[in-house]
Amino acid sequence: MQFYSLLYYKGKGKSGMKKKRILEPFMLSAFAILMVVYSNTVSAESIGELESKKYENESNKAVAEQQAQELESSKDDLEGLVRQFNAELESLGTDLNNLETQISNKQEEIENSRREIEEAEKTKEEQYKAMKDRIQFLFESDDTNYLEIFLNSKSLAESLNKAEYFSQLYQYDREMLDKYQATLEDINEKNQQLRREKGELDGLKQQNEAKQQQISQKIASSSQQIQQFADQIAEAEAKAAEYEKNAQQAQEQIHELEEEARRAEEERLRKLREESQGAPYDYSANDLDLLAALIQAEAEDQPYYGKLAVGAVVINRINSSYFPNSMMGVLYQPYQFTPVTVNNRFAIILAKGANSECYQAAQEVLDGNIVGTWLYFRVNDGSRTGTVIGDHVFY
After folding, report:
1. 110 in Cβ contact with 191 (< 8 Å)
2. Which residues contact 12 (CB under 8 A, 6 or more apart)?
3. Does residue 393 sit in helix, strand or coil?
4. 21 pLDDT band (50/70/90 cuts)?
5. At what angle do helices 356-366 and 285-299 cross, to 10 degrees?
6. Which of 28, 207, 334, 366 could form a Cys-Cys staple with 283, CB 3.0–4.6 A?
7. Of residues 222 and 48, more confidently modeled
8. Which of 309, 283, 307, 280 is nearest to 371 (CA)?
């Protein structure tokens, strides 16, 4: 406002009124351009912040997904280990069942052996008692009875036979007693062997049960760790989903801002077209050729709207008091249009004739379709603020 007042103050008097009339539209247009630039800058900053937010969320999502994959791999490895533990536990269970069967059988054998010992001891005792009774009868009877046995014999031979019989009977009892004693010792030895074997089986059973306990503890610990992995995976996946949601929201906001900026730019350009200076330019066929050639030389690879914008700059210069007031004067003004004054691209296109699209754009501009109030344009390298159309910035 201070700058505008200063211009107004300096423009007092008749000549000042003329300057005011000249400068006032320029100042209004400059103010409008500044407002658009400010608006575009704010939008650009907002979009930049949202792009940064989107990139950050996408990066965090990738990290969370990678973490979830690594946890999933660890969980799979641990589940494989648990399956191995379960297989070992099942094998140990089978071995334990076999051991318990063997122990049961061995216990039954020991019990049978115990009964055999009892029977052998009983038989031995009975044999010993019978032999003892017979010995007592033979040797512990009084002499009369013993003598009567011989006296009652009919002959010496009969007496000797009876003595031989008694001797054989004693020998038999002695042999049977020794046999029963040997049988008893064998059975005792067998019983001791069975007990040793059962002790070994009990030891194997204890080892088996200890291994089962260890593996069960490993399975319990691994299962707990698997659950922890599952919880961590769920947490990482939830984070990834949240980051993806945030990134999508940022993208939607970016789209809304871009759409809003696009609509604002379209509205601004529409108003600029409506408020563009004066009536259509009074042009000649030569002017059409010249403008079409310049548009192609400067904006052949640009969108159609960019071609119209280049043509608008030329007409705005013709209508401006700061530039020549003819097509030839504006185009051939030194150091203004590179294809005209530097590399002769303009002259080559003019000699051949511009393409149909550039002719169409030049025709629209000359007929009054002035899409902006710019006086300059250049390749957009970020060093100049203004209205960006295609690869150019107009200001």
Report:
1. yes
2. none
3. strand
4. very low
5. 120
6. 366
7. 222
8. 309
